[in-house]
Amino acid sequence: MSVSRTGRKAPSQTYSAGVRPILLDVAGLTLSGLLAEPPDGPPRATVVAVHGGGMRAGYFDGQADADLSLLTLGVRLGFTVLALDRPGYGRSAAQVPAGLTLEEQSAVLSGALDAFADRHTVGRGFLLLAHSYGGMLALTTVARTPGLLALDASGVGHRYAVESAERPRLRRHLEWERNWGPLGLYPPGTFRAAEALVAPIPAREAAEVPLWPEMFEELAPRIDIPLRLTFAEHEAWWLHEEPDVADMTSRLAKAPVLRVERQSGAGHNISLGRAARSYHLRALAFFEECLHSAEETTSRPTCIPGEAT
Fold first, then answer.
1. How distant is the alpha carbon of residue 8 from its chain centre?
2. Average pLDDT, the chain
3. pLDDT at residue number 257
4. Least confident of 81-90, 148-157, 189-198, 275-284
5. What is the pLDDT of residue 186?
6. Across residues 88-95, what is the average pLDDT?
C-alpha cells in the first residue's frame, strides 16, 4: 500500500549509517535489498523484513527521521537485519515485470534465506518481520518453510474492510487515506522521502489480493511458530474489531504463541510514522522473548524415568 507518485522526479534513495545495498541470486532472479550487520561480532539472530505492495525494502529504513529505521535499531540490539525487495520489485522487476504469485514468491523467499545463510552468519536463525502484502507472503512462507523462529506482521488481517468489488472504484484520495491515515502521524519530509520507495504493484500480485481471505483459511492451520500481529490505531484496510480478531485467531490454533496488539498513533504504514520506533521496539522485544524461550527449551534437562528434574 503506497503513496501516489507525483509528476516530480523521485529522489534518489539514501540509507542510514551502517546500512548497505545487497544483491542475492535466487532461482534465476536477482533480488535487491538492504542489509545492516552488527560490526563487533556475530548476530544473535537475523531479522528478515518483508515490505508491502507498492513499496520497496527502504520502507524499513525510513529517512524522514533517524528513529524510523528498523535496520539501525535492530543492529544496535545485536541483530542482523535484512530487508529484501520482493520478487517484481527493485532489481528483479525487469526480470518479472508482471510479478509472481504468493506461492511463487514464497519459494523465492525461502531460497533467499538459504542463499543469505550461505554467505553470512545468521546467528540463531531467521525471524520474519512483515508489513501488509508482505505479511501475506510471510504467513504463506511460514506455512511451507520449516525452521523459522517467529513472525511479527503488521497491517495484515484476514477480512478486508472494503469489499473486493469496491476496491477498483476507490477514489485516489480515499485510497491515500487508507494507506496513511492522518498527516500528523508522520514526521516532516515523510512523503517526499517516500517517493524513492514507491514502485508499481505487479499485475499478478494485484490479481491475487482479492483471493487472500480464502487463502488464509487454507494456510492458517499450518502456522506453527510464535506469531505477533499488530493493527494500527488508524488501520482502514482490514476488519480488526474484537469479533474479527477472535475469528482470525481461532484459525491460528497451532501457533504456540499468538498475540494481537494495537499500535496507537499509527496509520497503516506504521514503519514510516512517528510510532515506528515504538512498533519496532515491541517487535524486537517479541523476538527476544522467542529466542529466550527457545534457549530455555533446548537447555532444559531431559527427564529420566524415576528421577526428578
1. 28
2. 90
3. 97
4. 189-198
5. 95
6. 97
Q: What is the mean pLDDT of residues 197-226?
A: 96
As a whole number of angstroms, the distance between CA 290 and CA 302 comes to 21
Cross-sheet strand order for the sheet of 46-50:
20-26, 29-36, 80-84, 46-50, 126-131, 150-154, 227-232, 258-263
What global pTM score does this model have? 0.90
CB atoms within 10 A of CB 255: 21
Q: How far apart are CA 123 and CA 189, in angstroms?
A: 36
Yes or no: say if 195 and 10 are a contact pair by the CB < 8 Å rule.
Answer: yes
Q: Contact 255/226 with Cβ under 8 angstroms?
A: yes
Non-local (6+) Cβ contacts of 127 within 8 A are 45, 46, 47, 48, 79, 148, 149, 150, 151, 152, 287, 290
Please choose, from the candidates 85, 77, 98, 61, the residue with its C-alpha nearest in 3D space to the C-alpha of residue 201: 98
Least confident span in 8-22, 67-81, 123-137, 189-203: 8-22
Q: Do residues 46 and 32 touch, judged by C-beta distance below 8 A?
A: no
DSSP string of 137-191? HHHHHHHH-TT--EEEEES--SSBSS-TTTGGG--HHHHHHHHH--GGGS-TTHH
Across the range 118-132, mean pLDDT stands at 97
**The three three-digit cell numbers of residue 242, written as one number:** 474484537
CA distances from 15 to 3, 55, 93, 131, 161 (A): 19, 15, 21, 20, 34
Query: Is the model more confident about 171 or about 271?
Result: 271
Contact 71, 83 (CB under 8 A): yes
CB under 8 Å to 94, separation ≥6 — which residues?
A: none
3-state secondary structure at position 248: helix
CATH number of 20-299: 3.40.50.1820
